[in-house]
Amino acid sequence: MADTRTGRRQAKPAEAAQALSTILQTNYLRYWLIASWAIALAVTIPPFAALAWFVLTSAAGAVRGWFEKRIASGMKRGWGSVFPAVGAATTVFWAAAPVLAWTSHHAFGRPLALSLIGVGYLLVFSQLRNSPKQALAVSAPYTAVLIGFAASLWGTPDFWPLVAAFPMMASGLAVHTIVSAVGQAKITAFQDHQAHLIAELKGARDKADAANKAKSAFLAVVSHELRTPMNGVLGAAQLLSSSRLDATQREYVSIVRNSGDSLLALLNDILDLTKIEADRMQLEAIEIELPELVERLGAAWTARAREKGVDYVVELDPAAPVAVIGDPNRLSQIVHNLLSNAVKFTDKGAVRLKLASERLEGGRARLRFSVSDTGPGIAQEDVERLFQPFTQLDASSTRRYGGTGLGLTISRKLAEMMGGELTLESTPGQGSTFVLTIEAEVRAWARAKVEEEVTADLDSGEPLKVLVVEDHPVNRMLVEAWLASSGHATASAENGQLALNLCEAQAYDLILMDVNMPVMDGLTATRRLREADGPNRDTPVVILSASARAEDHEAGYAAGADAYVNKPIDFKALAGLLHRVPSGREGLRPAA
């Protein structure tokens, strides 16, 4: 029983709050209603009296509006019983209008008085349709006036007709209240259902966000776990290929390296596609030297084209800018995929890479990379299907040429991320032309003075003392063997804590630091190394990591690293870093 009373006490403020909200939403309408009542009164009473009623009732309405706004925020503190009293007090001024009309002795006075009372009831019950009890309390002055009218007619022929009108007015208000309550119940049910759907959508969104985060974490783990053994396989193959081998052994090593490179390319494609679909691919905005990019791509594909008896032709627009701002790695990836397909599917004729440009306003240029071949060509109905993931035109192409069908999908998505497009023009039997069109900010139109290229000759330069911090024994052995073959002295540590202990006792020229290690990871060790005052505080640190995510690279630089090398390690790239070590940390950073 006590719970019931408590529930009722809690319901009263809620009903009052809902009623007050309804009234506040129609606050300014009351003054239009007061004006219309005053005009009607002016027909039955002197105009100055109607004007006086208008002024007093408007003032009462203003006071009520001010009071309602003040108590609106206090509904939870016991204002449930205060609001009906305030409403009833201001209704007294409204109820004065039918009294003035009733006592005016005008032929239209009493009918107007009864009409005003009926309208007054209707207004109150319409505003408080969700709170019938509140409506009865607020409309109490109308009830008192109506009883007074009946009392004034006691003993006259008009008494019983007036009394007979009471049930009609009450039934009309009851029907109005019930219909309003039913309608409000439907609205409330709809709102509750809508709120439930919104809550479900939010829950689904949260689950999707959690799934994306889990997916990202999974990719980081997969990247590390797959790249780490791949580093061992490819690193050992590189070291083995530099040793004395007979023709058969060299062929076997070549098979291992080519298979490892293919597996690494497949891994990179899957990771790239997953990151793009998860909207986690980030593009860099750094300087790209276009002639150097085209030359580098040409060096990679000229030999392969010649092996197939295919000409490789490069056409560079003399008016093309020398340097633009963009992501050189992703741009190279797109053109590399296009050249790979062109060489793969062309058995005779030529593969042509052409770079054209168009000067735009605001220091920008539109670049157009086109890769043409004289291969079998592609039918128009197969063009769009060609850009779908894991799609090739027929099963025989998979058996003959290999591949996963991801290259063009990734290339088109990367082109769209750059604000450009990748299109295809092809004629069956004559060949195909893929066109990459992007816009870029121009950094330089003319070729600047070219610095002397640093070679990767491991036998040149002074010997270095290098600390190799790597938990994987195979990777650690490979890096130490590679360094020792060029005359560098090495020391090794299995985790970040052991590396810090070694750094306290001896100075090193370079530290190669893995990231994921037991006891202490590489980023924490690098951060503490920079914070300490030991002999290696300013020693260059190169991060070795199996992670391919750009955000992980940024975390390495933020921890104090100076360069970043992905696994499997490209020893030529690492050799280029070693040549910059004598210049200190500043010399390493441009090569990062």
Structure description:
The chain is α/β, with parallel strands linked by helices. It has helices at 2-25, 29-44, 47-72, 82-102, 109-127, 132-138, 140-152, 159-241, 247-277, 290-307, 328-345, 383-386, 395-401, 407-417, 473-484, 496-505, 522-531, 550-559, 571-580, 585-588, and strands at residues 286-289, 311-316, 323-326, 350-360, 364-372, 421-427, 431-444, 465-469, 489-493, 510-514, 541-545, 563-566. Helix 2 (29-44) runs parallel beside helix 4 (82-102), helix 5 (109-127) runs parallel beside helix 8 (159-241) and helix 8 (159-241) packs across helix 15. The longest helix is centred in the middle third of the chain and has 83 residues, at 159-241. The protein starts with a helix and ends with a helix. The model is unreliable at 1-17, 75-79, 395-400 and 448-460 (pLDDT under 50).
Task: Pick out its properties.
592 residues; alpha/beta; seven-stranded mixed beta sheet; five-stranded parallel beta sheet; 20 helices; disordered N terminus
Q: Into which percent range does the helicity of residues fall?
A: 55-70%
| Chain-averaged pLDDT | 79
- Structural category: alpha/beta
Cα shape: elongated
Which oligomerization state do the chains in this entry correspond to?
Answer: single chain
Total strands: 12
Could you tell me the radius of gyration in angstroms?
42 Å
Largest sheet: 7 strands, mixed
First and last CA, distance = 76 Å
Strand content: 5-15%
Output the number of helix runs: 20
List low-pLDDT spans: 1-17, 75-79, 395-400, 448-460
